[in-house]
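Request from the bench team (R.T.):
"We need a structural guess for the complex before ordering more adenosine-5'-triphosphate. Sequence and SMILES attached. Just send the tokens back."

Command: build protein-adenosine-5'-triphosphate structure.
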Amino acid sequence: MIKAEGLRKRFGKIEAVRGVSLEAADGQITGLLGPNGAGKSTSLRIISTAIGADSGQVLVDGLDVRHDPQRARLGMGVMPHDAGLYPRLTGRENIRYFARLNAVPKAEIEARIDQLSERLEMGEFVDRPAKGYSQGQRLKTALARAMVHNPRNLILDEPTSGLDVMATRALRELIRDLKKDGFCILFSSHVMQEVAALCDRIVIIAHGQVVARGRPQELKEQLGTDDLEEAFVRAIGRAEAVQEEGS
Ligand SMILES: Nc1ncnc2c1ncn2[C@@H]1O[C@H](COP(=O)(O)OP(=O)(O)OP(=O)(O)O)[C@@H](O)[C@H]1O
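Reply to R.T.: structure attached below.
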């Protein structure tokens, strides 16, 4: 369970995140949806402790990430926007390195990697250097790495970006399976169809602020349309109108 309250983050003159609050429950898929530059990655980076917020609070399974970042991190698996693999290491070595960082008992590491490699259908490439990986192979390795310490909360930043149709479908299936297993999944996307296909709850963000939230059906009702894509466009349009009034 992830709970963020009043997150704010400024980079010089740019206020990237301006009071974002959101909740992602166990056994649910929560989508953070917004156009380019809306503040999705920054919010997820704050939640996953990659960067600190200027203000606001993040609780992961009730633990305040600022007070106990190490313990909070053990409860989270994070797949950043750029997979961030070490190119000279093989997939297995990348995953093993993370397992050690996250205090997975040495005796369990190889079995865990084999299990994940099978679940994610990594095949022979897991033992090849990451340097030559395709985008899909990079993502699978990054996901295995995020899951190696068996965290209950998964944070995925644009997980399907750059994947072909088949790989996107496979990843969606996997995310649905993880949901059935009770994981709390929070992922970001700028593609409405992507979020519509997967999410139980959607949080729409624009200009660093949450502009609408709810189940897909609730969003359609709130924004007065039967079409989820149109609902997204209307929510963003309203945020832009408010932004222009204020400037
Ligand atoms: N390290 C940084 N230094 C300066 N500005 C930054 C930094 N990180 C993010 N920003 C700015 O903050 C704003 C929000 O960026 P962010 O990456 O969170 O958006 P996003 O919603 O994830 O966008 P995208 O869909 O394009 O990845 C943007 O204007 C971006 O340029």
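Two things stood out. Residues 11, 14, 16, 34, 36-42, 190 surround adenosine-5'-triphosphate (CB under 6 Å). The chain has a mean pLDDT of 92.
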